[in-house]
Request: fold
Amino acid sequence: MALLEVENLETNFYTEEGKVKAVNDISYDIEAGERFGVVGESGAGKSVTSLSVMGLIENPGSIDNGEIRFKGENLLEASEERLQEIRGAEIAMIFQEPQSALNPVYTVGEQIAEAIRKHMDLSGDEVKERAIDMLRRVGIPDPEERYDNYPHQFSGGMQQRAVIAIALSCDPELIVADEPTTALDVTIEAQILELLEELSEEFDVAIQLITHDLGVVAEICNRVMVMYAGKAVEKAPVEELYYNPKHPYTVGLMGSIPRIGDGRNRLDTIPGSMPDLVQLPPGCSFHPRCPYAEEACTQREPPLVDVDTGEPVEGLSESEHTAACLEYTGELQGELEFEVEITDDAGSTGVDT
Amino acid sequence: MSLQRYLIKRLFLTVFILFSVSVLTFSLVALLPGNVVDFILQFQQITPELRAELYAQYNLDEPIWTRYLLWIFDAMQGDFGNSIISDRSVSGAIAARLPQTVLLGLLGFVISMGIGIPAGVVAAVNKGETTDEVSRVGALLGIATPNFWLGLMLILVFSVELGWFRVIPPVDIPLLSFPMLKFMILPAITLGTASAALIMRLTRSAMVEQLNKDYVRTARAKGLSERTVIIKHVLRNSLISVVTVAALQIAFIVDGTVVVEQVFSWPGVGRLLIQAITQRDFPIIQAVVLLVATTIVFANLLADILYSVLDPRIRY
Amino acid sequence: MTERQPTTQRGRIRVTGFDGSVIEERDEFSWEADESTVARGRWERAWKRFKTNRTALFGLAIIGLMAFFAIFARPITVAGIPIQPISLAPFEPGASNFGAVLEPPSLTHPFGTDWSGKDMFSRIIYGGRFSLSIGFIAVSLALAVGVPLGSIAGYYGGLIDDIIMRIVDILYSFPFLVLAIALIAVLGQGFWKLILALVLVVWIGYARIIRGEILSVKENEYVLAARALGARDRSIIFRHIVPNAIAPVIVQATLGIGTIVLLAAALGFLGLGLEPGTSEWGSMLSQGRDSLIQGDWWVTVFPGLAIFLFVLSINLVGDGIRDAIDPQGDLGGGPR
Reply:
């Protein structure tokens, strides 16, 4: 049994324009201590997935189907009190904009202590000590003094460290990090990612890392799920995903990253944009933008299948590599004509055939 | 900048505003075509002695800035001269009526905040539901109702038809006695209603704005109860807006007092002002206007000080 | 199926063969995405939203009705030429009739008569002229003063901004009504003096709002771009900044009509508005007070109801405009 098992999750938003299928039958598992990446463009449903896990979906959204099992317990059936016990203590969350994620009128120390007070049975002094300790762990210098500072007195990177401190404060087993570095400078981003990796190893905390940045995922994740238009289109261990991508969307994403020293004159981008989640294309949602699409792709929605066997995967498998493309169920007539060239560090080129 | 520098800067600004306000108030009289005495002559007869006295009182022989300085110098000591009509001390007349006005204003303020803020909070938290819609309709009605009309309607229903209250205040009894306080119920309600409607709207929008902020999501993600989130996090941030609102209400309540005192024949400063206007009794008019403006300037200063206490971003 | 051997090589990755141009060249499939909606102008969208707002339309209808009655109550002549000959009012609003003093509502006098026998109904529909005209004229003039001053203050900043804002701060220290009263004491009574007093009191609100909006819009990139292209200041202000900053001012101006009407009515009630005896709704109420005690409720109820109805409708329209222009509530523009 994995730490977190999400099965057939369906979250919809009922708006004036119609029913927005933000999360459309998503399933994934996260093991204890694992770092799991969720990748996709804006609007793919990544954030909604994580908010669903935390039970923080509000009107006009609602979770209409599925199960979210955390350590065996189905969170979708838990009472609000039970969810409040779990939030912060067992599953914690980090958000994108650290500046606005912190309450401007309370000190940073108080905001950490507040979480500790809610979930742990410690005396007043012990709470403060622990909070200061947290600040130290996340690499904030002079933690005793910084405890009494307000959020606006911290730099952006420091603010995010403080947010991580809040998340870690009660020893959660899973941290859901929603674009934690998107709002930060590249150099700070590297530091924060390193910090997350260290903390994850040291405290055996699983991380669900949501991002649109493939580079971030490559840095620290063990396994990755690629999302498109509310659905999962590929799941694989991280090395497999990069060296052996299977789904055309993943390939397109990787192909559109500019590289220094690239000989090309034009960037290969994926033409078009994410479809309207109220009016999804029939069949495979990606087909309007896929160079390898065929008529069959408009008729049947490809199931997420193992790329070798073509069958849906039963149970857990850490090394599973699945993709949602008719290519892997054998129904595609043509070929996926992409190549992955790998230049090893010595400079010689080996072309994959 | 640090709190001290901020407050000192604010204090200087306050002094400057007070000075300018006094100049403006003084120049009301200076704006008159001709001079004060000639103006007054249009409305009533004055004996030559009174005329000479007025000349002296207004120092009409002096240049205008001297007149201003003399006036403001006396004013700061509480001497606003004498009424043209009654020849009695202006400050005495005001002092006699000030407690009535202050008490009425206070009651109105308490009613407006006591109804407005909770209503605004409840409406924001239940946004979109019936409670919210009802409150908003109520607020709309409150804002559109002219306060003098409301007062008259209340008198019609509760004093004339039902006989629960007197129509005019009792006389010759202390201000804080029961019959007097009982009489004050209707005027206080009249005064507080329009203000409560405004406060409710502004509180609601301040809370709604805060409820959309990210730190609320962080607080919920920590597992805090909804009650804690609303009271400890959201309300505390909304207080800054509430303080703005309260400061604005002072001006609003002052305006309201003038009208409500007229409706209910309440012997306060507002009524004095109206009397003075009809009689063109300028010393009184100037004194009351200066008093009112000064009160508001200090209320705004107080609000600014409260901001710096409430919002650490200003302090540090 | 494509043959692909998993590789054990590691190193820098480069993906080739994902050719986007294929998509443009191939024939469309049996399904096509809908055409995206044409980007409409901001004001067009706002108008569309406003049209669906029933309460706002209701308010607009009431105002229209009141305006209609006000215009057609009694004939209007300009330089001896009757441009509006219709007379909806059954009686002459100023005609006293001491034989029918303080009569309760009846068929001849639907709203009763006042202390001098004048027909209340006629007075009320005719009185709409004062309130409506004072409201619209005063707000227009206040905008004409406040918007340019506030724009200049916001755009140029520096000393001129300081000066204008100090003036605003000082005037803000006086409550509206008290300031208006003081101005009336000096200026005297009469229609245009009343308008002048009201304009002087109310312009500051608009100046403040537009200045605030300009300060925030000024930093936007399209302004910097216009500048870099060499556009003149005046052109930048009026073609780029003002259209974007004007929205809260429009809302506030609409609501301001209500504020002005209430102020004018209050002044009328206090006897400081138009000449006594005018059919202005507020002035009518000041006479109502005395008859109230005798139980002659109609003298008080109907004029006040008229004010209430008008201000309510204006507020509905103003709120409707606000919701139409700014459904998210992002724009500023606070009270006053």
